[in-house]
Amino acid sequence: MNELDLIVAGQAGQGLQVISRTLARMLVRAGYHVFVSQDVMSRIRGGHNFARVRVSTAPVAADGDKAQILVALDPALVARHVPDLTDDAVVVTEATGDLPENLNVVRLPLAELAREHGKDPVMVNAVAVGASLALVGLDPAGLEEMFRSQFAGKGEDVVKRNVAAAEAGFRAVVEDQKRCCPHRLGRGDLSSENRGQSLGIAQSPAKGQSPFSDRVLVAGAEALALGAIAAGVRVVTGYPMSPATPIVEYCFRHAQEAGLIVEQTEDEVSAANLAVGAAFAGARSMVCTAGGGFCLMNEALSLAGMTETPLVLCVGMRPGPATGFATRTEQADLLFSIYAGHGEFPRAVLTPADAGQAFQAAQDAFAIAEKYQTPVIILFDQFMADALWTAERSSLKSLVHSPESKVASPDDLKPYSYRRYEATDSGVSPMLLPGTPEQLVYADSDEHNEEGHIAESAAIRLLMVNKRNAKLAGIRQELEAPEVEVEAEVEPETLVFCFGSSRGVVSEALARLRAKGFKAAMVHLRHVWPFPAEAVAGLVGKDNKVVTVEQNYSGQLAQLLSQECGVRATGTVRRYDGRQFTVAEVEAGLEELIR
Amino acid sequence: MSEVKDWSTSADVTWCPGCGNFGVLNALKQALAAAGLEPWQVVVVGGIGQSGKMAQYVGANFLQGLHGRALPHAIGVKLANPELKVIAVGGDGDMYSEGGNHLLHAFRRNPDIVCLVHNNGVYGLTKGQAAPTSGLGFTTKNRPMGVLAPAFNPLAAGLAMGGSFIARGFAGDMKHLVRLIGEALNHRGFGFIDILQPCVTYNHVNTFAYYRERVYDLGLEAHDPSDADAARARALEWPAEGEVKQIPIGIFYSSRREAYESCGRPGQGVNVAKAGTVPQSTRSAVQSPFPLDVVKRALGEFE
């Protein structure tokens, strides 16, 4: 087989992320492409959370249709996942509690195994890891080292107890299933005496030992943070809010070694303004928030535009308005991010699709912010941030590049003669930092003259408005044209536009539609502003049908297409219930539209 | 060494004739010259209001930002480059109303910043509305029956929030104010001064004459600035309600506490603006080192 889907379900607080991530890392080391999505309620304990783990021999960037394996820590959760399962699915769950009929169930004393072998009921997640490994047919030998890397700070005893609990879970499934689990990745025998010899590819080598060690499993938020570190970020600010919190937390963890200043401020207003201050003083600065927090930052965004301060804002989209769904996904802040902030000033808006693109978006954001001395927004959806993506390590490293800045040379200046807002054709003035001997740097939120002093002259106003907005033409040159995914040697009849994390779902849906004979191409925008109007207009022939796939109510991308290049979408496939599109849903929606 | 005239600018000063702000501006210039600082070593961060305009009039580097946000900007500047002397200026509306939350947390954090608040008990730039420091019953165009809530007491609030340097000055006592700002510049931590600064256009209660009758210098009394209880008692001498008999000026409280930018953080007070990748003067960003080793190690975590 070349694909396997698992669902791991439980209550908040039961350590589902540990289970799905550990399992996924083991599978990546074994050479598989893995994609993990998280469905999480906004509560700390109880409720119903689950992760979907998709394992494939080919790259995957979306959830699978149906799962062959369900691991439910709480039997009460099994019933609601029955529609998500294949007819031959195997369900592993706790030994006691009522279950729906006609399921292929492995009932294990999960809590008892956790107490007995892990010496703690919380080790139920480790038991589940072991059981899952047995179900997919993966040798648990690499677990110890993986637990050690995860729980390094908690002591060797915790590592050992996790390993013992996982081993117990593994053995329990093997004993129950003997040789009959139908969904194993490897073909071999799982009985302990043969373990490691006959499992074929289904072994997970230790760190660094894998022939696939170039592959990593990384969350979108982590890749974004790491991309910013690689781009030389120095000051990171934020106020806790899903889905941006993991970016700040990642930066906190790496602050010492990467030389970062990471600030949790008193509120979002302070987070954004502190970053503006730090950027004015010369530190590459980034502020992280979600749509609601971004509302509070609009004034600072406008200030960065007026004072021509390089600032990167990471804005996570979750369903609004107001508090909406705290832990779920949407793409409804597209137009907001493009128009946010009062007054007119240039900005770029980047919409990465996955971890690899998030890493690069951080690089691009700093490059543009520095070069054009203006704010750049990385607009990501919750799904992108929280999903775990398989990425090539070498491709992440090779992306690192140096922003180029236009810098004034104090040696060429008479003392105290620097003009921060000197008018230039490009709109970009040579930069100098406060603290340069015998020069003064002024940044002014009032309309100002070239020096930076407050001014009310109409002529100066025109000079400065034109100067600031001239930068947009330069920014436009920096952005990448939309990605077009088209079948070789087939002229597409329909163009399907999308942005952000919809890319994986749309790409897979279109592959299925092409197999049915539809001639359709995907156009994915990872840079949405300045809108690539020329490139889009060039793509759309007069006979092409245009549709969009987007996670919002009003079809915001379709609006942009119409407004920015006169391209009218004849239909949109939309979802706005807070859950990510499924491939099947997009396939059906598109089929309906382009039939 | 700079002289007072080195802190002047060509900027057109737009305050009303006789405004109390002139006293604050002149005192700051004198204190900066006396502190042996050069204009390029100082960043003045201004809020928005008549007082915030002072950032443009001092002759140092400046960031004139937003109403209420001078402190976040100032903390950002200081964190990025602790070598800069950072002075945040704003009015009572700026610091006590729009930016009140930032002020409370700045007392807690204790960044090495001087914070000067022009307290005239009224809004000047927007033409005469009540401020958080307007006295109970103070009448304005939109409060003809008088202000309904007692005035904010910035000194008491600062003490409650653990501020390390809490002082009050008076724009009508230049010698005293120059000395006070000098002490705040020397204080390693958050040097907060509430400055009584009469508005000659919109506040006909808290005039120069009103203050001259009531202010007295704590420095001439047996007041111990390391005694927080004594400081609280002095801060409450200006009652929220009823007759104001006397108003202490001077240093209410002063203690030594680690400054925020050097508190157990990565880099510990390192100039990240310089150490970072953004060019300082002629250094090109292209030559700057990227933390590639960090990225490489970090990627290992995801294997």
Search tags:
heterodimer, A: 595 residues, Pyruvate-ferredoxin Oxidoreductase, domain 3, Rossmann fold, eight-stranded mixed β-sheet, seven-stranded mixed β-sheet, 20 helices, B: 303 residues, alpha/beta, 11 helices, globular
Descriptive report:
The complex is a heterodimer of chains A (595) and B (303). In chain A, 37% of the residues lie in helices and 20% in strands. Chain A has 595 residues and is of the alpha/beta class. Chain A has three domains: 3-213, Pyruvate-ferredoxin oxidoreductase, PFOR, domain III (Pyruvate-ferredoxin Oxidoreductase, domain 3, 3-Layer(aba) Sandwich); 219-398, Thiamin diphosphate (ThDP)-binding fold, Pyr/PP domains (Rossmann fold, 3-Layer(aba) Sandwich), CATH 3.40.50; 483-594, Rossmann fold (3-Layer(aba) Sandwich), CATH 3.40.50. In chain A, α2 (78-81) links the parallel β4 (67-72) and β5 (85-94). Chain B is an alpha/beta fold. Chain B has one domain (4-262): Thiamin diphosphate (ThDP)-binding fold, Pyr/PP domains (Rossmann fold). Chain B has helices spanning 21-34, 54-57, 70-80, 92-98, 100-109, 154-160, 174-186, 208-214, 228-235, 272-275, 292-300; strands at 42-46, 61-64, 85-91, 113-119, 165-170, 191-196, 215-217, 247-254. The N and C termini of chain B lie far apart (57 Å). Residues 274-288 of chain B have low confidence and may be disordered. Chains A and B meet through α1, β7, α7, α9 and α10 of A and β2, α3, α5, α10 and α11 of B. β15 of chain A pairs parallel with β2 (61-64) of chain B, so a sheet runs across the interface.
Describe the structure in brief.
Chain A has 595 residues and is of the alpha/beta class.
What's the N-to-C terminus distance of chain B?
57 Å
Q: So, the CATH homologous superfamily of chain B? A: Thiamin diphosphate (ThDP)-binding fold, Pyr/PP domains
Helix content of chain B: 25-40%
Show unreliable segments of chain A: 187-201
Rounded average pLDDT of chain A: 91
Structural domain tally of chain B: 1
DSSP summary: helix tally of chain B: 11
Q: Identify the overall geometry of chain A.
A: globular
CATH topology of the largest domain in chain A: Pyruvate-ferredoxin Oxidoreductase, domain 3
- Compressed to H and E, one letter per element, the order of chain B equals HEHEHEHHEHEHEHEHEHH
Percentage beta strand of chain B: 15-25%
Output the CATH class name of chain B: Alpha Beta
Instruction: Give the strand content of chain A.
Output: 15-25%
- Count of spatially separate domains of chain A: 3
First and last CA, distance of chain A: 32 Å
Question: What is the top-level CATH class of the largest domain in chain A?
Answer: Alpha Beta
